[in-house]
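agent> step 3/5: call structure_predict on target 'Acetate kinase' (Streptomyces albidochromogenes).
agent> reason: downstream docking stage needs a structural representation; sequence fetched in step 2, passing through unchanged.
tool.input:
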Amino acid sequence: MTSTPNREGTAPVTSAQRILVLNSGSSSVKYQLLDMRDNSRLAVGLVERIGEQTSRLVHSPLTDGGGKRERTGPIADHEAALKAVAEELARDGLGLDSPELAAIGHRVVHGGLKFSAPTVITEEVMAEIERLVPVAPLHNPANITGIRTAQALRPDLPQVAVFDTAFHTTMPESAARYAIDVETADAHRIRRYGFHGTSHAFVSRETAKLLGKDPSEVNVIVLHLGNGASATAVRGGACVDTSMGLTPLEGLVMGTRSGDIDPAVTFHLERVAKMSTDEIDVLLNKKSGLVGLCGDNDMREIRRRIDEGDQRALLAFEIYIHRLKKYIGAYYAVLGRVDAVVFTAGVGENAAPVRAAAIAGLEELGLVVDADLNAVRSDAARLISPEYARVAVAVVPTDEELEIARQTYALVNA
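tool.output (status=ok):
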């Protein structure tokens, strides 16, 4: 077996074709096993409520018509969770000891400025991920736990980190820096990093394919709209601006996050409401956004309430759309020329009223939505703008797991 070095370690070239993708959260592990010969999924699953008596593992083999299996009961920690996952995969002949498994790809939320590409995990890489914990305290520790556990189960197998922030490292300093004292910012790594990078990378590339062009030829505004939401301006395949910042709190109105807000609001709450830093953190991240405005963060429920005449739900929707329009317009100005505006993720892919409202009134920018095309429900990438529109409007389903698998497989076979 030969080896090809990359920037952080050595990626062994392998003839194996399968990639296991792990997304480790603080109390959950999502996983998918993919065959890279045709990008097919062999198994998918989720372990949730790790560390509780009510832990739950749902496993779905996707070969030979296998049905979904579920087990409940205490799963003590991530090590126990991954061992349970390995057992379920083994039952389907897809075990972690298979010679067909080429590598394990890990979603890592924060890679700072150091990691602009998928990276074979070494101790030096782990040390840097740990150094970034202060700017990603909810995510990087869980990612580290998942990596350590996977390393213990398969110490001989390449482990690859694919960073949410990597796609955004191409942002120019004019977009990435905040206008605060430079020495203070540099000392504490304060800058705009952006997130959802694997989704924005995948969707911008698939949008170019939908337009029949190379990614280097197109400028795209990607709107990743889920419970977390972000917008990215992509010029010729590279990110030039994105709405999330130091943390995923900045930017669009989200399910439970406020998005853009005057920083002085936090000082006001400390001084006048006597709220602690932790209380304000919870308020802005978990009790704001749509849920703070109307009590619901499910767009389907909000639309149902609007249809019934609920004014609070209507105002929440209008605030959500207003922020979306602002970012579409801002990124149109940043890019200068826009070939497509594309909607993705749970809300973006499924909520036709959101797409219609976000584009309404932007005809002077060349943006128009065809009502009939917009109403179609489909899992396929598709245009929802009329043929005469100067700028395409598209819906492109995201696939972050496939993107992680592709990047992982490309690296270990470089």
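agent> step 4/5: record observation. Confidence is low (pLDDT under 50) at residues 1-7.
agent> proceeding.
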